[in-house]
Amino acid sequence: MNKFIVFLLIVLISSTFESYSKGHDDVKPKTSIYAGGGFISKPTYDGSSSRRFMWIPMIALTYKDQSKTTLNEFNFYGPYADLSLYDNQEFSLSLFGEYDFGRQNGDDNSLAGLEEIDPHFQVGLDLGYSLPYNFSLGYVIVTDVKDFYSGSYDSEFSLNYETLGWVNFKQPLVNTTSISFNYANGDYLNEWYGTPYPAFNDPKAMYKFYKPESGIYKASLSNNVIFPLSDKITGLLNVGYDRLMGDAGNSQLVKRQGSKNQFSVMFNAMYEFYSF
Questions:
Q1: CA–CA separation, 101 vs 59, rounded Å?
Q2: Among 261, 256, 221, which residue's Cα sits nearest to residue 243?
Q3: Tell me: the pLDDT tens digits for 115-169?
């Protein structure tokens, strides 16, 4: 099982229930426990042309108190957790931590001979600002815990459009369309897209030396639909497209063995079996 794809699924599910909770009018503090699962079809690794299809079970814990503007929400999804520091329905700031499973050579034959990316913890900030007509701006930055001040980092700028619709259950249908761009420093891009000098300058080596520099490396378009399947079951359908560009798109990993075009689709259903 590709653990990196499992991590991506968990992050997407976390965004599902954060958006879902915003559609409720109930201001009472609420803690809920969910169980469920879903499938995901994504590239084997970022920049890959091969794909994986997997079914993954999930358990989640969420807390939200809409009567407060500080420390009013907490979400835990296995290796991902976030805490709302401030949210006044116009501006929001959250702190999150996550466990990145890295990338192993066994994930794809195109990675043979490259240095593996060890699993590691990351922390980040998530900022949001609401605009008129259901638009909003988002900014996320994440970095390794070990090299918090001087290590690699990745960031995302996004423009989002959200619509709410009501069906026959208590939960709303929430549709969010997002356009985003990712910017990362050279350390991050070199870790994921760089290739080292071939051993002994072997002319038959799979990849030539390549070291990307800081810059915008990805543009993304995604659509996320959260919909009720019953009073207790919530479904999610996410479709995404990423276009690698800049030094990432010119990587030896992408040009020779991968693809600049990255497509993904995910479906998930979660049952709220206990709340208080």
A1: 18
A2: 261
A3: 888 888 999 999 999 999 999 999 999 998 876 656 789 999 999 999 988 777 7
CA–CA separation, 59 vs 229, rounded Å? 18
Choose among 9, 122, 4, 20: nearest CA to 62. Answer: 20
Under a CB-based contact definition with an 8 Å cutoff, are residues 147 and 120 in contact? no
> pTM for the whole thing?
0.85
Q: Tally Cβ neighbours within 10 Å of residue 214.
A: 16
Tokens of 268: 């998930």
Q: How confident is the model at residue 176 (pLDDT cuts 50, 70, 90)?
A: very high
Tell how far CA 137 is from the center of its chain: 16
The secondary structure of the chain as a DSSP string is --HHHHHHHHHHHHHHHHHHHHT----S-EEEEEEEEEEEEEESSTTBS-EEEEEEEEEEEEEE-TT-SBS-EEEEETTEEEEEEEE-SSEEEEEEEEEE--B-GGG-GGGTTSPPB--EEEEEEEEEEE-STTEEEEEEEEEESTTTTTS-EEEEEEEEEEEEEE-SSSSEEEEEEEEEEEEE-HHHHHHHH-BPPPGGG-TT-S---B---SEEEEEEEEEEEEEESSSSEEEEEEEEEEEE-HHHHT-HHHHHHB-SEEEEEEEEEEEEEEE-
Q: How many CB atoms lie within 10 A of CB 12?
A: 22
Nearest in space to 143 (alpha carbons), one of 184, 115, 176, 86:
184
Mean pLDDT, residues 89-104 taken together: 91
- Which top CATH class is 3-275? mainly beta
Degrees, nearest 5: CA angle 78-81-83: 160
Token output for 271: 């049952």
